[in-house]
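## retry 2 of 3
previous attempt timed out at serialization; input unchanged, resubmitting
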Amino acid sequence: MTEIDSLIEPLVAFRRDIHANPELGFHEHRTAARIAEQLRELGLEVHEGIGRTGVVGVLRHGTSMRSIGLRADMDALPIHEQTNLPYASKTPGSFHGCGHDGHVAMLLGAAQHLARTRNFNGTINFFFQPAEEGLGGAREMVKEGLFERFPCDRVFGLHNWPDLPAGTIATRAGPIMGAADKFEIALTGRGSHAAIPQDSPDAILAAAALVQQLNTIIARRIAPTASAVLSVTQIHGGHTHNVIPERVTIAGTVRTFDPAVQDRIEASLRQIADGVARANELTATVDYTRYYPATINDAEAAQEALDAAATVGTAQVAPEPAFTSEDFAFMLQACKGAYIWLGQAKPEGSVPLHNPHYDFNDEVLGHGIGLHVALAERHLARG
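## retry succeeded, writing output
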């Protein structure tokens, strides 16, 4: 049994305790306290309350000024768990449906191993980040001076990936996760009795036309060589069968990898909304929010990650980026680094992320710990 193997059993128990007691973004008080306690027991320098509920552990050894950052997210999702596991969530409507409990366990395991072996020369910063699920916890940590207080030559983030076989580790240079935008368009008229539609502009009819027009943006305004997604996901309007509503709202999301494509889509969306509103004698207001940028890996850092991955599992270059988003992007805007996928699919298949039946695969804990350790030891090689 290796030293890392000896860590797995207590880490499984720790992970399942976190799973049973999930906390949503910026409310990870119990989780953060448990992490801080574990880091202090290892003798690390511990900083709490960074980015509201974030925790940073600092481990130094030797005389080198080189440094590395390793990040794990720790928030749950607002989903009701349906796994029926013995350690299922005790909190209705809160659930570790994205595996952040596993991410925490893997990074803690790496801290335990590195604190005991100290086979490195420099500084390792362990970043336990809150509020990845749509609230921008990484952005808050960066705003509070994360990399000024804890400088890093490189920063790496690891996420479990059910689409890859367990133990397979993948990343790529350049874009790996999409930018996430959200929009809401309100079409407003006067409203009237449904039996006399000639007396009022029809916001329902205009909304139907607008949905069709929005779905032409990618096909007709974006180059075929570019990658982008626009999805209308909500339509709200009306409250009874015999009233033409005064106001209808349409909402959705846009995913891109290129800021120029992102700009083109937003401009087109605003233009089309205004045109449809004018054609139907309505007014349109557009609320367009770019809440997560694209996650862009540094080429050298991505190669570092692949080299380290080859020592602990099956390493492969990810053939294409994913359109899902990740707020680790904010850390990569402030520090060179790479975002990495760790496969967790079992031979019989795997449940996707954000599914009420999902559970992190404890069988890959050792791979995740090993990858974190390899990243740190290789970057901070002694001598």
